Amino acid sequence: MDNISQHNQKRWNALAGANALFSRPALELDAKSAQGNIDPEGRLGSIRGKQVLCLASGGGQQSAAFALLGAEVTVLDIAEGQLARDQQVAEHYHVAIKTVQGDMRDLSAIASTSFDIVWHPYSLNFVPDARAVFHEVARVLHVGGIYHMQCANPFTCGLTPKDWNGNSYSLKYPYIEGMLLESEDQPWAYARENYHGEPIPILREYRHTLSSLINGLSDEGFVLQHLSEDLHLFPNGEAEPGTWDHFVAYAPPWFGFWATYCPRT
Q: Phi/psi of residue 36, each to 5°?
């Protein structure tokens, strides 16, 4: 385990202990809300019986939704605290969810061509080499399998609401592939006033340029089907400048990629 893995593991175990937003298990789902959580546009079609890998996706949210919709679910995450939430929802809903502790850059614990869907929520930017992840995803997917991945908007990565200068949000970091960016967690991430555990390690993200993302996927045999800026956040341009709601209206923070694995023969 390298320094990157160690940092991510320590940070996400601490966030799980703080009951951070992405560490709160989804315990009130039904089939309709499960569908809305993972696939509101119906891009996946029926997933009953499909083999699904929730990649770097511990926390008991996506795994619960997929399992309730009839998928065979495996979750891989680096933090045992996060995986404990997936075990919690499996017991809560009386469904089977397999958990594997590991790094998204090394899926050697998983056999090749094991999955129909790889579901990868926001975590790619926690490692510096996106191509290493894409290579592993391609290996474990069936031909024709679906890869859904969410990542930072390459152009706004590193910006925060605090970067409001009175007129705009100021870019302050070079647009360089793999550049390390450190920042504080947003106030909505967890309730600081209720957390009295060990200090939570700083948020470390690595910029991935748009060309490295698209070309990296293409080089591994993925065909891009859909790209979104995840504007379901309902941005509010009339919100107070320097707040999260105002920030996302001017600097969309996330991209969502839908791709199909179609390797060249």
A: -65, -30
- Where along the chain do its domains lie? 3-21+45-261
Report d(CA 100, CA 80) in Å as an integer.
Answer: 9
Q: What's the CATH fold of domain 3-21+45-261?
A: Rossmann fold (3.40.50)
Residues of the chain with pLDDT under 70: 231-235
Please give the full DSSP string across the chain, using - where no structure is assigned.
Answer: --HHHHHHHHHHHHHHHTT-GGGS---S--HHHHHHHH-TT--S---TT-EEEEET--SSSHHHHHHHTT-EEEEEES-HHHHHHHHHHHHHHT--EEEEE--TT--TTS-TT-EEEEEE-S-GGGSS-HHHHHHHHHHHEEEEEEEEEEEE-TTTTT--GGGB-SSSBPP-S---TT-EEEEPPPTTSS-GGG--SSPPPPEEEE---HHHHHHHHHHTTEEEEEEE--GGG---TTSPTTSHHHHHHHS--EEEEEEEE----
Residue 233 confidence (pLDDT):
57
pLDDT, position 24? 95
Model-level pTM? Answer: 0.94
